[in-house]
Amino acid sequence: MTSSDASTTQQPGAHQLRRSNSRKILHAAWDQGPVTASELIEATGLTRATVLNQAKELVAAGWLREAADTRSAGEYSKGRPALRYELDDSSGLIAGLDAGQHRITLAVADLAGAELLREEVYTDPVAGTEQRIAAVTELLQRTLDSLAAPRFAALVIAVPAPVDSAGRSPEHPEGFWQRMNPNWITALEPYAQLLAVDNDANLAAVAEMRAGTGGSFAALMVGERLGAGIVVDGALLRGGQGFAGEMRALSYISGVGNALGLGYLAREEAWAALDNGRASTLHREGLDARQVFRAAAAGDSLAGEILESLGERLARIAAVTAGFLGLERIILCGAMAEYLDPVLCIAHRELAKDPELAAVQLEASRLGADVALKGALANALDLVRRAAPFAK
Questions:
Q1: What distances in angstroms separate CA 322 from CA 160, 222, 290, 356, one per listed residue?
Q2: Domains (ranges, CATH) in the chain?
Q3: Model pTM score
Q4: pLDDT at 317
């Protein structure tokens, strides 16, 4: 008997030990793909009897399935073929929900993390909490019905608000945080076995770390409002009530003055100039930030001035954020990221004027507009892995 199987007065009871052994076997199959009992023994340090018994129970519970044996898989030609086990990734579903101000997006994946479908609904940005809850619960129920699933194994919700360890947001003077997080942790409990709520920038930082970003950095959401997921020495910072990364202090920074996002400012500054009669190729009707960037690239002087303003502003934000926390880089995230190269060039030019700030690395995320959603799915999978095996 190996040390993992042995029972001593310090070890947990039989039920807890069986659960611990089941978790070791399940995680080994989760990480390695189809594995034989011998490979599971090597990976877990458990005895053959324990591995065979627990693997059989995991198959019966729907966590593992019997894969093609080694002969059928072309890996064995003589003697008795070895049975192989693999994660039954179709036996449960995880979900990430990006509950943004204007749009709510749901992504569903299997237990291997492969995305299966995506749905989205648009919402009134000033809608009350009851309307937002109704929109989300209808979306979740419709999706579960279409998949013939009673509920998700895990659901993680991304919100543009600080979130504490209990999944709740503090009060906001104008009620914005309450609208964005109308107690999702309670409202959505019927739809998932495991449930968590987190700040969207924090989840963007999670996605960046999963993509290989290490060290100390900020994942800065730059669309409508600024918010950062702060990672120091590989650890995500949260702070009291989830306030780490909130950018309200920018109101005290000269040349910044608020935490409004680059997308918001590009649109609003263009509107204001056009309303004042400024000549431009831009048109107020249907104007958005992307059109400002396209117009600047085509030589529109107003659009160029707006990007210049955004770049100078970004440089100040980067200097304060990176300098105070000793960050190595700031990654601009969200739907705006793919358009920001001109603004990044201006910001780098401004930072280069100060030798102490020239080392600050500013870059646009490569993870696209759904970076927070990717982080939510990653955390949902982690929730299941940490809790498994549980009764489905």
A1: 21, 16, 27, 11
A2: 15-66+83-87 (1.10.10.10), 94-209+371-387 (3.30.420.40), 211-367 (3.30.420.40)
A3: 0.88
A4: 94
